[in-house]
Structure formats: C-alpha cells, structure tokens
Design a protein that fits this description.
Layout (H helix, E strand, L loop, with lengths): L6 E2 L3 E5 L5 H8 L2 H7 L7 H19 L3 E6 L5 E8 L7 E7 L8 H15 L5 E6 L4 H9 L3 E6 L8 E7 L4
Parallel strand pairs: 5-6
Antiparallel strand pairs: 1-2, 2-3, 3-4, 4-5, 6-8, 7-8
C-alpha cells in the first residue's frame, strides 16, 4: 500500500482503505444514515465487506491511484469514517464522497478530510473538476459541500436508480 498517498491533518490520518478495514466498513455501510442517504450495498458479513473493498475500492485505487480513504483519529487511533474520490458509473468526472460513524458526526472531521482530499485532487492527482452528489433531504451533506465551496449545478439520476440527486461541482482555480 506504500505506493499510494496517505494524508495527515491536525487530527486525522487519511489512508487508502484496505481489506484489513473490513470490520469497520461492514459497520459503516450498515449505519442508518448510510442506508438512508447512500443506499444498501447488501454487505452483511465481514467476507462481503472484504469483497466490496476489493471490487469497489482497491480496483479503482490500482487503476487511478486514488479511491476511498479510511479516516483514523491520531489521538485515539480510531477509525471514524471514510472520504474518497470516486470514478462513479453514470457520473462524468470524479466525485467526492464522505460518511461517518454516527458518534463522529458534527465534529468537523468531514470538512477536515474532504478539504484535504479536495486539495489533493487538484494538487496531487491532476483533477480539474470535482463533482459531489447528495440526496435532496441530506441537509448536512449539502451544508458541508457548500462550506467546501462546491456550487450546486443541477440534478442527476445514477444508472439503476430512480432517485434524483443534487449535483454539485467545484473547479480548480486557474493560477
């Protein structure tokens, strides 16, 4: 895993998710807000979580050099959430996403991690435009995207889904 970038903030280590995170990913994917706002990924066992990580996260990491990152607190060495840059089917360009265990929401970790990955997208990965999608009723996500200076640019519906999502975008400042 050393060949992929890891990031640090004041409070977090942001490293690529790997199969050793299967127990944590299993827990996160089955939290009420994940199920409500992101959707049921039908990951109900640790083995299914390992397979999900391999298929959905590691395959993109190997292909593009970035994907999903596990967020770990420096102080307690606790896995608290994920943030990532995704090549999402049905969405043109790269999408940023984030999710947290309920006990770590509303503590500023989302902004800290997403701001770091937004900057990495522009500075380290050569991405010039980042998308973000969220449900119309996920006000916390919308608020975070706006704090990150994303602008709503319309709506979209992903393949194999019927929910209209809000689409946000941000472009790299041209120097």
């Amino acid at each position: 895993m050393e060949k992929y970038l890891t990031f640090e903030t004041k409070r977090l280590i942001i490293r690529p998710t790997n199969t050793e995170d299967a127990g944590f990913i299993l827990e996160l994917l089955n939290t009420p807000k994940w199920l409500k706002y992101i959707g049921d990924r039908n990951v109900k066992t640790k083995t299914a979580a390992k397979n999900y990580i391999k298929e959905k996260m590691l395959s993109q990491l190997e292909r593009l050099g970035y994907a999903n990152y596990t967020l770990i607190t420096k102080k307690e060495n606790q896995k608290i959430g994920t943030c990532g840059l995704f090549d999402r089917p049905g969405l043109e360009g790269i999408d940023i996403g984030f999710a947290f265990l309920p006990e770590y929401e509303g503590m500023g970790y989302g902004f800290e991690a997403a701001e770091t990955l937004k900057n990495a997208a522009f500075e380290d990965f050569g991405i010039t435009t980042i998308n973000a999608i969220t449900t119309k009723d996920n006000f916390a996500s919308q608020k975070l995207l706006e704090k990150l200076e994303f602008k709503q640019s319309g709506t979209t519906i992903l393949p194999d889904d019927d929910v209209e999502l809000l689409l946000y975008k941000i472009e790299k400042d041209s120097d």
